[in-house]
C-alpha cells in the first residue's frame, strides 16, 4: 500500500467521521420526515464511500461493479415493495 | 517401497501425486482425519450427504409423531405443547437442514467442478468451512430439541416468538443464523467457480442446465440469506433487550417481521426447487437420449425464477393485515413467476416427446417430479388469487401445496439425483429393479399422504391443530397411512445403495451411456477429476437424434 493510498483512505475516514457528526447534529435540529430524509441521505453517502474506497470498487470494473449494484438493487426491492404495503395501508376505496 | 506408478506424474506435478489419488478420490486417504480435513469437493459432498441424510431422518421422525397423533381427532398421543414442538422441529430441520442444503451441497458440490471441467471449486477451504458451520448450526438445533424444543412453528412469527413463546427460540434462531452463513459461503463458492473455473470451450451456452440452475440458486443464497440473519437477530434483540421493532406497544410492527422473513423465505422455496429443476433437466435429457428442447429458455427461466422469486413474498400476508393494494401487486407478481416454471415443464415434456425413453430409476423420479410439481405449482396459482386465499389460507390446502413442491418436487429430484449419479460417486451399480420399486412406492405413498390434505383444507381443516372435528378423521387416517408407506419407501434406497457399496458391479465411466463431462472420468473420479484439462467442443446433450426417414 503506497503513501498516496494511505492518505486517500485517511481522508475518506475523516469524511465518514464528518458525516457521522452531521447525522448526530441533524438529529438535534430536524424533526419528522426531514430528519429521516437527512439521516437516510447521509447514510447513503457513507455507504457509497465505503463501497468505492474501502471495498476497492474504484479499482474494479465490469462484473464486480455489476454485483455491487445488484446488492443495492435488491435492497431497493426489499424496501420498495415493503412500502407498497406501508404507504397504502390507510387507503380506503 | 514405491514403483513407477506411485511417482509424481511430470505433466501434473503438484496435482495428484500418488497412484491412489489418480485412481479414486475414495482411495486418497482412509483415516478419519483425511475426511474431516479434506478440501476435495467430492469428499465434502459425501460429508454433506451423510449429514443431510441424518437430518432428514430426524425431521422424518418428527413427521411420524405428527401423523401418528393426527390419526385420532382427540390428539391422544401428544400434548398441545408437544404437538406444537413436533411440527416446529419438523419444519426447522427439514427446511434449513435438509431441503435448502440437500441438492446444492451434495450433488452441486460433487458435480459442479466435474461438469465444467475444473479440478475443484474456487475456494476449497471455504467449502470445508461451510460444512463445519452447517454442522455447528445443526448440532445447536438438535441440542435445542433435546433441551425442550420450540413451539413457534418454523416461521418464528412475532409477537409469539418475541414475547410469548417459552421454548428455546433464541437458541434455534442462533442455529439457523449460523447455518445461513454456510449457505452464503456455498453460494459464493459456486458463483466464483462458474465464472472463473470453466474449462476451455465451456462457454455459457455450453453449460449443463444443472450448472445454470445452481448458478441461479447461488445468486438467491447470497442475496437473500443475509436478510434472514438480520431478521433473526432483530427477534433476539427484541426478546432479550425489549427493543421495539415488531411490538406495536413499543412502536414496532408485527407485519414488518413477516415482510423481512418472507423476503428470504419465499426465495428460499426457489433455493429448494431450482437445483431440483436442474437435476430433472439432466435426468430428462438422459432418459430420452435427446437434447433438451429449448435449452436457452430452460437456462434463462432459471435466472428468471431467481429474480421474479424475490418479488412475490407478500402473498404470504394476504390476510395478515397487509394493505390490499400491496396484496394486489404481490398477487399479480406471483402469477408472473409461474411463467418460467411452466416453460421448464413444457420443455421437459417436449424433450421426452419422441425420445427413446429408458425406464430406469432416474426417469421414474424425474417423471414423479414433473407430475407432482405441476400439481404443487397449479395449486400455488390458486393460492395466489386474493379471494381463494381468504378461504384456504392457513388450512391443510396450503400444507398440501407446499409439500407437493418441497417433498413431491425437491425430494423426488434428490432421490432421482442419488439414483442417477450414485454409480459415478461410488463406482458401483445398484439393482435397478429396486430403484424402480422405491420410486413407485414414494410416488404412491406421497400422493396418499398429501392429496387428502387438499380436500381437508378445502373443507376447512386448519393447519397446526391436532384436535379436530371427527368427520375429518377418514382423510387424516388416509394421510397417515400414506405417510407410513412413504417412510418405508424412503428407507428402501438406504438398503440397496448400501448393498451396492460392497456387492454392486463396477459402474465403469459411463454406465447410462449419456453425455456430460462428469461421465468422461473414471467412476469414482480421481482426486483431481481430470488428468488433463478437457477442451469442450460439443454442445451439452449432444445426442444423435434420428429424423424422419432415418428409422
Count of domains of chain A: 2
Tally the beta strands of chain A: 0
Total number of strands of chain B:
0
Oligomeric nature of the chains: heterodimer
How many separate helices of chain A? 3
* Distance between the first and last residues' Cα of chain B: 58 Å
* Order of helical and strand elements of chain A: HHH
Computed structural class of chain A: mainly alpha
Distance between the termini of chain A: 62 Å
State which percent range the strand residues of chain A make up.
under 5%
Total number of domains of chain B? 1
Question: The CATH topology of chain B is what?
Answer: Cytochrome C Oxidase, Chain A
The gyration radius over C-alpha positions of chain A equals: 18 Å
- The overall average pLDDT of chain B, rounded, is 93
Shape of chain A: flat
The CATH homologous superfamily of chain B: Cytochrome c oxidase-like, subunit I domain
What Rg of chain B do the Cα atoms give?
A: 24 Å
Beta-strand content estimate of chain B: under 5%
Mean pLDDT across residues of chain A: 90
Low-confidence stretches of chain B: 1-11
Task: Describe it.
The complex is a heterodimer of chains A (93) and B (551). Chain A is mainly alpha-helical. Chain A has two domains: 1-59; 61-93. Chain A has three helices and no strands. The longest helix of chain A has 27 residues, at 3-29. Chain A is flat. The model of chain A has no long low-confidence stretch (mean pLDDT 90). By secondary structure, chain B is mainly α. Chain B has a single domain (37-520), classed as Cytochrome c oxidase-like, subunit I domain (Cytochrome C Oxidase, Chain A), CATH 1.20.210.10. Helix content of chain B is 66%, strand content 0%. Chain B contains 17 helices and no strands. Chain B has helices at residues 19-23, 32-36, 41-69, 80-116, 124-146, 160-164, 169-196, 209-241, 254-288, 295-308, 324-336, 338-352, 361-384, 386-392, 396-426, 432-459, 473-503. In chain B, helix 3 (41-69) runs parallel beside helix 5 and helix 4 (80-116) packs parallel to helix 7. The longest helix of chain B has 37 residues, at 80-116. The model of chain B is unreliable at 1-11 (pLDDT under 50). Chain A binds chain B through residues 63, 70-71, 74, 77-78, 81-82, 84-89, 91, and chain B through 195, 223, 227, 255-256, 259-260, 263, 310-311, 313-314, 317, 322-323, 325-326, 329-330.
